[in-house]
Specification:
Blueprint: E1 2-6, H1 10-22, E2 27-31, E3 43-47, H2 48-57, H3 59-68, E4 70-72, E5 75-79, E6 82-86, E7 91-95, H4 96-110, E8 113-115, E9 131-134, H5 141-145, H6 147-150, E10 152-166, E11 173-179, E12 184-193, E13 196-203, H7 205-210, H8 218-228, H9 230-233, E14 238-239, E15 246-253, E16 257-258, E17 261-263, H10 278-295, H11 299-329, H12 339-347, H13 355-361, H14 363-379, E18 397-399, E19 402-404, E20 408-410, H15 425-436, E21 441-443, E22 447-448, H16 465-481, E23 485-491, H17 502-505, E24 518-519, E25 533-534, H18 537-557, E26 561-566, H19 571-576, H20 591-608, E27 615-620, H21 631-643, E28 648-652, H22 670-680, E29 684-686, H23 693-701, E30 707-710, H24 712-716, H25 720-728, H26 740-764, H27 769-776
Parallel strand pairs: 1-2, 1-9, 2-8, 5-11, 9-17, 20-21, 20-30, 21-23, 22-23, 23-26, 24-25, 26-27, 27-28, 28-29, 29-30
Antiparallel strand pairs: 3-7, 4-7, 5-6, 10-13, 10-14, 10-15, 11-12, 12-13, 16-17, 18-19
Helix pairs in contact: 1-4, 1-10, 2-3, 3-4, 10-11, 13-14, 15-16, 16-18, 18-20, 20-21, 21-22, 25-26
The structure holds flavin-adenine dinucleotide (FAD) and flavin mononucleotide (FMN).
Length: 783
């Protein structure tokens, strides 16, 4: 077996070590263009979990690495004169140079040939190799040479960063968010050995320019950073080593393998430095390759197995890195936040760390977060306890004169169970039980403003007196038997109308007894869907009237709030998205034009709806298609509705066109709510794959939404909120007298259940290396 490895970074060297251990007779050579100890940069960081992996795959290098490392447990967030520390993170840092020297030494011991100062520009010199490993880093020449095959996608991010060092000792992974006269600067800093720390400085391009950094050399820009962060550096110098400012490229390659060549480490994919995973990914790639080589019958099969087995893990890490880098790119959104809420946002930015998880690790910090949240609620005139506050989910909220007892919401969900638009007993039981289950607000399903406005024959409507009476009965039940408020969602199906019930074929056209459908432009949803008629002004006037009349009926029913459905590709959404609006009149073209009719409908309804009652609008904040609506458009849309008097933007996404490519995942729509809330400065409700009360609290406490809606979780659990209240000890939650014994029991048991759960979690969590080290260095207690 002959293996050529191009690149002597962490990926190439660790691959050499593991492959040579497996194939002691293999001829393995690493070709590195630099000298052996000629490495740029300062420290790298690994989590405890990554070190566990190293321990398993090569104990000798693991031992040497861990002897050299600096450990820490805390993350410290400095912002506006405050510092918040959170423990239990289990990280360690090491000098990149030392790491490489350790790996080189270990590779040599095993008999790997290390050829330094050897730059490879053509793989043909390895024609006799069984395997060629391309570990030539972020600017990989070989990835670029075979660009048509590997198909890399390089997303150059907007923020600029520079990697420096310092002799300043640090006892935590330290984030410093620094206001300057030019704009915000961020430092990501950690110690990696005694007397040495890594400092990555980051800022946005406009601040970079304003700070005059553009024309400065390495030394001058280090001096500028030392001025900005001097108060923290405390006289310690900043060190440079090729510390030029650059933009981070997020790299994803469609293929990782070509014949007997394989991309490893940064050459194949990168992950933003803010989650400290670059070296981890590089070394874990080497582990995955070695595993595949051990178990597969041929090199070809091994490479295929490596790519297939490893891709998901790499993409998951890249996704977390993406979410994290976007947070840092938009840090100005949170600049006005209370510092403790800001710190909570830093900690929870990439979904891995949550409210409950932090409550276990840093209860005092979460107590501060809760207090800050309660203070904001109190400032809005609520008499809430600020000293012993409830979790954010159970804090009240006011929209105009409507007060919500808590922030959990039942999302609008079609039940497809109406007859000629008439709500039935099913609807009474459905809405009634969810209201009794404790949510602060429940939405009706999309209720249609006319017979021909329906999506399906099973949709509810509000265009005649019988329907009005049926809805009044439901609203009366909710008001008489719960503390929930109820919001009427009104909509018109547009080109998605005259389709089958969900369980017969979602969005598929009815085969018979359909009705004529209208849209912004004559574009069918599926190629075989009914062709919608482009609306003329008379049709638009008729639809506007229908919305206003339904709103008036809604008021007579006693609904507390009204929502206009402008999402999911229905009629009003079809005006907003450029993918479905091809009009050449004043309702098509620019976003302002496309918004004209939806805003007109909203304004007419707002005028008819009592001023003391709130209104919301549901929008699709992205179409998930190139050329469609994106987050920045959604901010503009939200602003336009806010100016027209909207009190809350209900942030959903997609369902506009068939070929959308949504990126699903936990809480996947929340970033859009975050962007709209904190850029357009309007209250938002987020929704979408939010399944636990822990997630609800995480979102609210981080200021990413004001209300959180849950759809599918409520289909199977009407008492979602009541149960969450028991878990968090929010005993003020409403419960009808008939059910009080159940409430008393679950509240009593939850105290014990929660204690058991926390104990289990604490017991199951292995001690971090920092904790073990601290214990080992404690003097033994005197007898
Ligand atoms: C600012 C910044 C901060 C970072 N912080 C961290 C961190 O905290 N933790 C972490 O884990 N990672 C961090 N990283 C990422 C980390 O440095 C890389 O992800 C990691 O080094 C990737 O390993 P690699 O072996 O794939 O590539 P590299 O380490 O880049 O190694 C590639 C090697 O190939 C050599 N080479 C290239 N072309 C040729 C050629 N044609 N012939 C011969 N040799 C060649 C290069 O000289 C280089 O030595 C950071 C990166 C940056 C930019
Ligand atoms: C059965 C069902 C029916 C739905 N009907 C509507 C609706 O009438 N109006 C609407 O705006 N959204 C509707 N939605 C979307 C939900 O309100 C919600 O945005 C979506 O299900 C994502 O939230 P979840 O992950 O909590 O379920 C529906 C969803 C489901 C599952």
């Amino acid at each position: 077996m002959k293996i050529a490895i191009i690149g002597g970074g962490p990926a190439g060297l660790y691959a050499a070590i593991l492959l040579r251990k497996q194939w002691p007779l293999a001829e393995i050579a690493v070709y590195e263009r630099n000298r052996a100890d000629d490495t740029f940069g300062f420290g790298v960081v690994f989590s405890d979990a990554t070190l566990d992996n190293f321990e398993k795959y090569d104990p000798p290098s693991y031992r040497r690495i861990t002897q050299e490392f600096a450990y820490w447990d805390d993350i410290a967030v400095h912002f506006r004169g405050t510092v918040h520390r959170v423990g239990g993170n289990g990280f360690c840092g090491c000098s990149r140079r030392k790491l490489l020297l350790i790996l080189q030494e270990r590779a040599r011991e095993l008999g790997v040939s290390l050829r330094f100062e050897t730059e490879i520009d053509d793989e043909s010199r390895f024609a006799d190799a069984d395997l060629i490993v391309l570990a030539d880093g972020i600017n990989s020449r070989f990835r670029e040479k075979h660009i048509a095959h590997f198909e890399p996608e390089v997303d150059v991010r907007s923020n600029v960063f520079a990697w420096m060092g310092s002799t300043r000792p640090l006892d935590a992974f330290t984030f410093i968010f620094q206001e300057t006269e030019w704009g915000p600067f961020i430092a990501h800093a950690y110690q990696y050995e005694a007397g040495r720390s890594t400092w990555i400085f980051e800022t946005d391009p406009a601040t970079f320019k304003r700070a005059g950094l553009e024309g400065l050399n390495e030394k001058q820009s280090a001096d500028r950073m030392a001025e900005i962060f001097g108060w923290f550096l405390d006289g310690y110098p900043l060190l440079t080593n090729r510390s030029m400012w650059r933009n981070f490229p997020m790299i994803r390659s469609k293929r990782w393998v070509k014949d007997n060549m394989v991309l490893l480490g940064d050459a194949k994919a990168t992950a933003h430095f803010s989650i400290g995973s670059g070296t981890k990914l590089a070394m874990e790639d080497a582990i995955a390759l070695a595993e595949a080589m051990e178990h597969a019958p041929t090199v070809g099969a091994a490479l295929e197995q490596y790519e297939q087995g490893r891709r998901e893990e790499v993409e998951k890490t890249q996704h977390a890195a993406d979410v994290s880098l976007v947070w840092f790119e938009h840090v100005d959104r949170f600049w006005e936040f209370d510092p403790v809420q800001f710190a909570f946002g830093v900690m929870t930015r990439s979904k891995a760390i949550t409210y409950d998880n932090l409550t276990l690790r840093a209860p005092d910090f979460v107590a501060e977060v809760n207090k800050a949240f309660a203070r904001q609620v109190r400032a809005k005139g609520f008499d809430v306890d600020v000293e012993k506050p409830l979790a954010p989910m159970f804090q009240p909220m006011r929209l105009r004169e409507m007060e919500l007892a808590n922030r959990a919401v039942v999302s609008p969900m079609c039940m497809y169970s109406a007859k000629e638009g008439m709500p039935t007993d099913f609807h009474l039981v459905h809405y009634g039980s969810r209201a009794v289950g404790g949510a602060g607000l429940i939405f009706t399903e999309m209720t249609c403003v006319g017979r021909d406005a329906r999506i399906t024959p099973g949709c509810t409507g509000l265009w005649n007196d019988e329907q009005e009476a049926a809805w009044r009965r439901i609203v009366d039940f909710v008001h008489a038997n719960s503390a929930a408020k109820i919001c009427l969602q009104l909509g018109h199906a547009g080109r998605k109308g005259a389709t089958k019930l969900m369980w017969d074929g979602m969005d598929r056209p009815l085969e018979e007894s359909g009705w004529d459908i209208v849209s912004a432009s004559p574009i069918p949803y599926f190629p075989d869907s009914k062709m919608p008629r482009e609306m003329d002004r008379a049709a638009m006037d008729a639809v506007k009237r229908a919305f206003v009349q339904a709103a008036e009926r809604g008021e007579r029913c006693g609904f507390d709030m009204l929502e206009l459905h402008c999402a999911h590709g229905y009629l009003l959404a079809s005006f907003i998205s450029p993918l479905t609006n091809r009009r050449s009149d004043e309702y098509g073209g620019s976003l302002d034009n496309r918004l004209r009719f939806p805003l007109e409908v909203f304004e007419a309804m707002r005028a008819a709806w009592p001023a003391r009652k709130p209104m919301s609008v549901r929008i699709s904040a992205t179409d998930w298609v190139d050329g469609g609506i994106i987050g920045d458009d959604a901010v503009a849309i939200a602003r336009a509705f806010a100016e027209a008097g909207v009190d809350l933007v209900d942030v959903s996404t997609g369902q506009t066109v068939r070929d959308a490519q949504p990126l699903y995942g936990r809480m996947f729509q929340t970033p859009f709510s975050d962007q709209i809330r904190n850029e357009a400065r309007v209250a938002t409700m987020c929704v979408g794959n939010i399944t636990t009360s822990d997630q609800v609290n995480t979102i609210l406490a981080a200021g990413r939404a004001d209300l959180v809606a849950l759809g599918r979780p409520h289909l199977v659990d009407p008492a979602f909120t009541l149960k969450a209240a028991a878990w968090y000890g929010a005993d003020g939650v409403f419960c009808p007298p008939q059910y009080l014994p159940g409430k008393e029991q679950i509240f009593r048991n939850s105290v014990r259940d929660r204690q058991d759960f926390d104990d289990l979690k604490i017991k199951a969590k292995p001690k971090t290396r920092a904790e073990l080290k601290a214990e080992a260095s404690k003097p033994l207690a005197a007898e």
